[in-house]
Design goal:
Length: 292
């Protein structure tokens, strides 16, 4: 969800509602000896806060049942963001900026945590897709990354064979990789070096999900190694060597896309459980206030 001009009416409405609520609270605080959540005005603010929280929670229901075409998804997202944010000042007005009692204290900080994590999530959703577009030219469907990673590993092994085959002085219908290696004895040390490099660095890096322990994660280190390999081999082998280098670069970008994708959704690990706890405890708090 990008924060664009379509959010402007929601932002203006949220600011206006906060200012109106602030004016009401100021007048109420001046003329009430002990403002708090148990007074009529305090209960009004508390009811507004709970209603806003429950409405924001309906987004999860809307996502769980997409066949329920109740409003457009983008409108629901904007309402969730801005009305959820509006719940914070309503909670502050309800509590008269004081957290009295253990449950009230927990609710107060849960509200701040939910709103803060929601703002962080909105910022991530606004910025991370742009970063992916800018930093990952080889962007692909996230769920397809493991499949593409396996394809890259197989292609790299094939290109390594192409390096040795490209050095053969002749190739007939019955030529094999073994024949090719036997015909390039002058370059055998270089071929052994390439095979070790592919076995020790390239194959493990392409096979691992992130390759966190591989030097090939470092783009500059990778460039130096492949430049050295190109200097060791004749020009005929440069094309498959460069192809292996490009495969490693594509893997590097896939890993970066996966990291950004996880970052894009990491805030939900805080926001969702905190929101569920906030709503549950708010209902308990409301029932307790009505009973006593």
């Amino acid at each position: 969800m990008r924060i664009d001009q379509t959010h402007k009416p929601w932002m203006i409405g949220t600011i206006a509602a906060t200012l109106v609520g602030g004016c009401v609270f100021a007048a109420y605080a001046v003329y009430t000896p002990a403002p708090g959540g148990g007074t009529p005005i305090g209960l009004m603010f508390g009811s507004l806060a709970l209603g806003l929280m429950l409405f924001a929670a309906l987004l999860s229901v809307r996502k769980r049942f997409p066949i329920w075409r109740i409003g457009r998804a983008k409108i629901w997202m904007r309402a969730h963001l801005w009305l959820g944010f509006l719940a914070l000042p309503m909670v502050l007005f309800h509590a008269a900026f004081h957290a009295r009692g253990a449950l009230t204290f927990v609710l107060f900080w849960l509200t701040i945590l939910v709103v803060a994590s929601g703002i962080a999530g909105a910022w991530l959703q606004h910025t991370v897709p742009t970063r992916i577009f800018r930093e990952v030219p080889f962007e692909t469907i996230y769920d397809q990354i493991p499949v593409i990673r396996a394809q890259l590993a197989a292609e790299a092994r094939a290109r390594a064979i192409d390096v040795t085959q490209s050095l053969a002085p002749a190739a007939g219908p019955g030529a094999t990789v073994v024949d090719t290696l036997l015909d390039i004895t002058d370059l055998q040390p270089q071929v052994d070096s390439l095979q070790r490099f592919v076995s020790v660095y390239v194959n493990p890096y392409l096979s691992e999900e992130q390759g966190s322990g591989s030097e090939l994660k470092d783009r500059e280190w990778s460039r130096v190694q492949f430049d050295n390999l190109r200097r060791e081999f004749p020009e005929a082998a440069w094309t498959p060597l460069t192809a292996i280098e490009e495969i490693c670069e594509e893997k590097r970008q896939l890993d970066h896309q996966a990291r950004l994708h996880r970052l894009l959704h990491a805030w939900l690990l805080v926001h969702l459980p905190a929101s569920a706890a906030l709503i549950l405890l708010s209902i308990v708090h409301a029932i307790g206030a009505l009973r006593y």
